[in-house]
Amino acid sequence: MALPVSLRNSVTPPELELIASEQLVEIVPLIAMERTAFISGAYGPLRPPTKAKIPIWMAMNLKFKKKCHIVPPDWLNVEFLQERLIQETSRPEFSQLPFRFAEVAKLLLDVAQDDIQNPDKIRSLLKDIREARQAKSREGLQKIDHSELSLPNLCSMEINEIRPFFVRAMGVLTHITRDAATEARGFDGL
Amino acid sequence: MSSTNVAINGGHSPGYTALAFSRNGAYCYTGGDDCIVRIWKTDAPDEEPAIAPDSGEAITVVATGNDTWYSGSKDSDVRQYRSGSGEFDALVTSVAGVSIRSIAVDPAGKRVAVSSDELEVKIIDAEEIEVLAMLHGHKDCVRRVSWDPSGSFLTTSGADGTIIVWDMTQQDPRQVKVLDGIIPAVKDKDSVEFAHDCSAVWHSSGQYFVVATRTHEIITISRETWTKSSTFSDDSSSGAITALALSVNGVYLASASNKSVHIWSTQNRRLLFKFPDPLSEMVTQLAFSPTKNLLAWTDYSGTLYRWSDPIPASSPSPVKSSITASATRPIRRQATPTLFDDDDTTGNNNDKGKAGGDVDMDGLNDFENEDWILDDIGGGLNDEPEEERAGVTGFVKEMVSVTKAQPAFQPGSTPMEHKKRYLAYNMIGVIEVTDQDTHHIVNVEFHDRSARKAYHFTDHFKYDLAALGERGALYACQPESEHPAHVTYKPYGNWATQGEWTYELDDGVKVLGVAAGGPPPTKSLRMLSDGDMQGNGNVVVATSDNELTFLTGTGIERCSVALDGDFVSMVAGPEWVFVVQRDGATTMDGSQNLTGTLYDFEDLCVLQNRKLPIRKGHTLQWLGISEEGAPTVYDSAGVMYLMPRFRIPLRGTWVRILDTNKLERKVGKDESYWPVGLSGDTFMCLILKGRQEHPSFPRPLIQELPVRLPFRRKDPKEGPLEEHIARESMNLLIGHDALGDDLATDDILKRELALDKELIQLIQNACKNDKLPRALELTRMLHHTASFDMAMKVAAFYHLVGLQEKMEALKDDREDSDRLAHGRDKRRRWARDYDAVPPPRLPPADVVSSRTKAFQDFGPPPSVYRPGLTRATPAPTAKPAHNEREYQMDDEYTTPPPEGKRKRIEEDLSYRDSTSPDGVKRRVLDAPPTETMPPPPPKQKSNPFAKKTAPDTARNPFARNAEHNKSLHKSESFFDKVDAVETGKLKRLSLYELIFALY
């Protein structure tokens, strides 16, 4: 695995994608199917041309077999992402995006490029957003103290990215402050 | 169309001869190599023409303005004359020693474009005689210039082979487009090719221009894309095109090639007429008279030909027609490729209005909003108010029937735009057509690819009507010169070509509409399935003979039903066809006066016959079938209507089910909805932005909008609930009507139950707000008897004892009369003849009940026998028997076991009973032993209604069963063991009780 050592202990991006693929997505089925029970729940019925909501993994599977068109979620379009990118670059806080937007966007762009309008533009926008957010999360990490770090609207992929560093840094910080406290108490005792 | 109506006048010496008609059509000017211009009176072919001998060298061009005419010659002068006179009026311009090549006067007669052997094109103000602009851009001399009908574009054709389109609306003209490689590049100015017409001839709609290419084709260039949009081609026309002309109304195109003159239709780009006599010389210029049915041309010998009445009286006139709108107007279909795009035309009119350019161009450009008749087809519904039209053209407003009649149309089809159109777009699939000039490519795709297979074919008949039914697709074409109109039915399925058939109509009879209906397939039509058993559906063809021809799906003629009005549109469902026709004429006050009739396929009798609820001033836009099978219409006001109780003969009403103007999403947006279908609670449509009237290509996604009855209650909690209850009740009524002799289906009962829940919520709300009559009213609307108990509980909760008692009374009433049986009797009384077909796309009922499919069983799993978890009773021998018994129990719910098997089980049982110490004990305690033990009676496939009559016992099914079993059976021990199994089963059977237990 080509991940840096620091990331190997935490969840890998493909694993996150797997988790995200449980989310529901709208499709336009091209086949008819009765309501069908799966371990995670019952989905369907599929009645073309009525849209249906099914998990992403199932939509991907159907898409591979050319049995559905995926309707991209309302945040996966150029206008929305453009606006978010402007927010991201002009404001200090993280803009509001779906928690697993990175994973879902990647999955859908990989599988259903032809169902999404202007996929290349979306890809580059997503990349820009990701970079802007990465810069912010790095900056946020500088403000870390031993008790809390507040980064609202951080997304799962980003949390995962900063996790190893954050956990260690937090540990070290807690250690230092505790040491300082005990030392201070020691001095008091004297 | 013989040579007798051709006037031939040799007026000039041999050489290039120019020709132009005056704008009022009274004069015809010809200029030739002999340096003079002759002014012919159009009416008097034999009269000696006046002459204008001012030029010093050969005349190269004559052009006409409003009351002036211009000549250009090789002596580099452009002269202006008064209309009809040969007296020199003014010198417009002159260039430095080279010859003038082309003059074009803009439609308003104000600007004159002059091209010469110089590289620039001069734009000159005709009144002030001053140069307004010089157009720089060509690399060689400019051979021809032409204006578009609005005067906003100028096209210049250069000798270097480029056409430049200039935007002339601004002070400084700018290049819009340079079209290279279309016209030939001709360097030699004395060659014959140089005299060939290379000008861009604008169509009067302003949407495109026609030009002769270097490959000897005539093509049209669309204004929107500036690319080639279509080709005029015919085998009999070959060789270089030497001259081109369009009739003033744009219906006909005249071309000269190979010493012959052809007339084409601009609508279908087919060759219509040919000048009968052979010509001796090459034609140099062609012109249609602006006011008469007259085509004139000049040739290289300096001769003027005037062919009067080139267009026979049976065809549309090449000049404007003075027909006013009246009810006797022939039906014109909107769905065919229209000559002009209606919306574009009106848009163009607006443009012109803004530019103020068409004020004084009498009789040149206002034909396009005229109502000339074209072969019953083409053109569309012109939405302009009649008064305005009458005002423009100066006609007296007719006092009879001034509402424009809506033309016949095919639901779900669009006109040809950019060489593509939809022939059908419905809930089954899409038929797309691409125009390839000589033929069409028809592409059929289905939404459900698992059920039907997509296909495409090459269509040489240019089918312009199609219907996509559940069991086959139907295509129809119009009569052409060599073949009469016909319809072709292509059933789906693997062996489609075998089932395919063609039905020819009589000579001259046109097809106005087609519909293909039939029950939906129960299985995929991709496999070879029951399709043969259920037939290929039904086919209905509406013809110009004012009749509907009913055929079966295999092409058997069944009936020809006479129509009592003009046919407008139709759509076919599984059991019926819904035909919309106009009763007599439109009314004076703006109503289309449409009537919808529902014909039953089985016996071809009328099921419903009602006027369509379309408001005055609006038109019918779409008609279809809802998923429940009810007829639906959508009007241009954006309101959708449904006839829910269409099964009750002649009692259906139109219910307003959706007003798209009130949709939440429409607020603040300029969009319209193009209906595709209606399924239960969703309105399937394509969303069109702005002023778009038809969906474009590529195929947009179908959007789902929620159906909302246009109710007015604004209460945030009760309003939506009431609306939903009303809507759901309506859908339930459709379901009930379709039941026939059945009492109810599981689906209906489930939906009624859900509805009852919502009613209880409303009852609770009413109780809370002390609206007792309302609560009582709502109680009366409840469906299930058990729901009454819930209502009573609600009343008790709010300490409304009086109400509770009244509810009790209502409940007693309800229990006395069987609601479902009553409904069935009513149905029987009303509609004995109209049996419903099985619900769509579901396997037959017996299959459902006998086997539940794997993965589609949502009940709890059957409990597994786990010997490790049972009480420690040493009964090793009993185990196999027990297991067998367990499976047996499963079977008993569905099919009684065969006799022999039953006996064996009894033996097993007795064997086990005697060996099990536990069993023995129980038997002694509970039941007196009986010698012949019957197997436990098979649990009947329980009808929840049977149980409902005794709700208190139904509360605890387990208790009751235990009691029953005790008296019936010899042994109790077995039932102890299978108790777990039974609980699972029972729960599933009495889903009804389970749901109620949830509240």
The dominant shape of chain A is elongated
Low-confidence stretches of chain B: 322-399, 842-850, 878-903, 905-941, 946-954, 959-967
Unreliable stretches covering 5 or more consecutive residues of chain A: none
Greatest interface: A-B, 19 and 21 residues
Distance between the termini of chain A: 54 Å
Number of strand segments of chain A: 5
Strand order of the largest sheet of chain B: 1-28-27-26
Q: Look at the structure and give the CATH class of the largest domain in chain A.
A: Mainly Alpha
H/E order of the elements of chain A?
A: HHEEEEHEHHHH
Question: Which features characterize this protein?
Answer:
heterodimer, A: 190 residues, mainly alpha, Ribosomal Protein L9, domain 1, Methane Monooxygenase Hydroxylase, Chain G, domain 1, three-stranded antiparallel β-sheet, two-stranded antiparallel ribbon, 7 helices, 54% helix, B: 999 residues, alpha+beta, four-stranded antiparallel β-sheet, 29% strand, elongated, WD40 repeat-like protein (chain B)
Task: Please render the helix and strand layout as text.
The complex is a heterodimer of chains A (190) and B (999).
Chain A: H1 5-8, H2 13-20, E1 24-29, E2 36-38, E3 41-43, E4 52-55, H3 56-64, E5 68-71, H4 78-90, H5 101-111, H6 119-142, H7 156-189
Antiparallel strand pairs in A: 1-4, 1-5, 2-3
Helix pairs in contact in A: 2-5, 3-5, 4-6
Chain B: E1 6-10, E2 18-21, E3 27-31, E4 37-41, E5 50-52, E6 59-64, E7 68-73, E8 77-82, E9 88-94, E10 100-105, E11 111-116, E12 121-125, E13 130-135, E14 142-147, E15 153-158, E16 162-167, E17 174-180, H1 192-195, E18 201-202, E19 208-212, E20 218-222, E21 228-232, E22 241-246, E23 252-257, E24 260-265, E25 271-274, E26 283-288, E27 294-299, E28 303-308, H2 342-355, H3 386-393, E29 420-425, E30 429-435, E31 440-446, E32 455-459, E33 465-468, E34 472-477, E35 486-491, H4 496-499, E36 501-504, E37 511-517, H5 531-534, E38 538-543, E39 547-552, E40 557-562, E41 566-572, E42 576-582, E43 594-600, E44 606-611, E45 620-625, E46 631-635, E47 639-642, E48 655-659, E49 671-679, E50 682-689, E51 703-706, H6 718-737, H7 746-768, H8 772-780, H9 785-797, H10 801-816, H11 819-830, H12 845-850, H13 878-892, H14 899-915, H15 917-926, H16 944-948, H17 951-955, H18 957-968, H19 973-989, H20 991-998
Antiparallel strand pairs in B: 1-28, 2-3, 3-4, 4-5, 6-7, 7-8, 8-9, 10-11, 11-12, 12-13, 14-15, 15-16, 16-17, 18-19, 19-20, 20-21, 22-23, 23-24, 24-25, 26-27, 27-28, 29-30, 30-31, 31-32, 33-34, 34-35, 35-36, 37-38, 38-39, 39-40, 41-42, 42-43, 43-44, 45-46, 46-47, 47-48, 49-50, 50-51
Protein name (chain A): DNA replication complex GINS protein PSF2
Organism (chain A): Artomyces pyxidatus
Organism (chain B): Artomyces pyxidatus
